[in-house]
Amino acid sequence: MATSPLSLTSKPPSVTRLCHQRPPLTTVRVSAAAVTTTTGMPDHHHPSLEITGGGADRFLPAFNTLHLPYKPFPIIGWNRHLETIFAAFFRTVPEVKYRRECLRTQDNGTIALDWVYGDHRSLPSDSPILILLPGLTGGSQDSYVKHMLVKAKSKGWRVVVFNSRGCANSPVTTPQLQTASFTADTCHVVDHVSSRYPKASIYAVGWSLGGNILVNYLGREHHRCSLSGAVSLCNPFNLVIADENLRKGFNNIYDRALRGGLSRTFEKHASLFEEMHDEYNVQAGLNPRTVREYDEAITRVSLGYKSVDEYYSNSCSCHVVQHVRIPLLCIQAANDPIAPIEATPYSDIKDNPNCMLIVTPQGGHLGWVAGDDAPLELPGLIMR
User: Fold this and answer.
1) I want to staple 206 with a disulfide (CB 3.0 to 4.6 A). Which of 132, 178, 210, 347 is the partner?
2) Measured in whole angstroms, how far is the alpha carbon of residue 351 from the centre of its chain?
3) Residue ranges of the AB hydrolase-1 domain (predicted)?
4) CA atoms of 158 and 161, how far apart (whole Å)
5) Counting runs of H as helices and runs of E as strands, what totals does the chain give?
6) Phi-psi category of 53—alpha, beta or left, where left has phi over 0 and alpha has psi -120 to 50?
7) Is 365 a catalytic site residue?
8) Quick one: which H or E segment has residue 50?
């Protein structure tokens, strides 16, 4: 499960600290007929989906299947844990051949981009480009990434997977691995892809922690963002709430899976951190009891935070949704066990004319075992 879609979450030259005070999050009630919020604000009616956002009126005409009801797969689709675990273990994995490109960053770090092999010869230079940002410890090898890639490629898109530092067997050249708030690498990737294909429109999709990273980039770098649009899927949005939620009841199974993936990735590169043993708790990084303990020992140190709580509170993408200036579609599941729906910034999404939110009644965490291609493939909600 280390590289499955069970996803949440090096020393950079500088870190932007964001400590905005946010209003209380909206409580959501999901019903079969329509979904309303406690704010009393009107939303778009749908037989089974919640659709809202300041950009909804503008974006909805682009969806030619969104009027259809959400029909969960029998048995599996009525339990959030079954949906999440089934998708992680039993979703098919398409055959995809990659061509890897490694980028060197200003701090001497390394980013691994996996392009679809042969596309640089077969596609015109102005083909639209899709950058994929997987979840925590995820990468180009994951089934949900490959299914999205195959769908986009079938429509003539050029696709590249942005593997965060240390993920997908990417080389690590500095004591920094994947983090939720470090947007410098995303800036570097988008700038690189833009300069390589100046005639192409570029879009991005991020899952779970990758969604949080993507939205942080869109909000913090809105003045220089060259993307034409983006999609965030199962974004935890508020890492403080997500952290608390991950350690409750059955959710501990996801915490164990994620911390296992983190420690295995860290073990491969621990020697880089051992040279700085006064700062990093290497032993805790190798054998963390929780994701939180790993982030306290390794992640928050690499970013210069004094505590893991400071790292989480300053890494929440819910704080910057209001600043997004390009079309952004957020898709969440109301029963997500890892990205709890109460962390979703409803007010800011409703107030931003560039944002739209779709909430499905079921789906678990990156499960969504509904639709013609489900449960063994990826539903085609956003690629039709």
Assistant:
1) 210
2) 22
3) 128-366
4) 10
5) 14, 11
6) left
7) yes
8) strand 50-52
pTM: 0.87
Tokens 């209380």: give the residue. 24
Distance between CA atoms of 303 and 306, rounded to whole angstroms?
9
What confidence tens digit (pLDDT) does each residue in 293-350 have? 999 999 999 999 999 999 999 999 999 999 999 999 999 999 999 999 999 999 999 9
Q: For this structure, is 208 an active site residue? A: yes
Is residue 44 part of the annotated active site? The answer reads no
175-230 per-position pLDDT tens digit: 999 999 889 999 999 999 999 999 999 999 999 999 999 999 999 999 999 999 99
Residue of 46, 269, 319, 365 with catalytic role: 365
Sign of the dihedral defined by the CA atoms of residues 357, 234, 295, 255, in that order: positive
Q: Which residue has the tokens 């599996």?
A: 76
Q: Helix %, strand %, coil % for the chain, to 5? A: 35, 15, 50
Catalytic residue (choose from 269, 336, 347, 348): 336
52 token code pair: 């809202």
Q: Which residue in 368, 367, 381, 335 sits closest to 68, CA to CA?
A: 381
The H or E element spanning position 99 is: strand 98-104
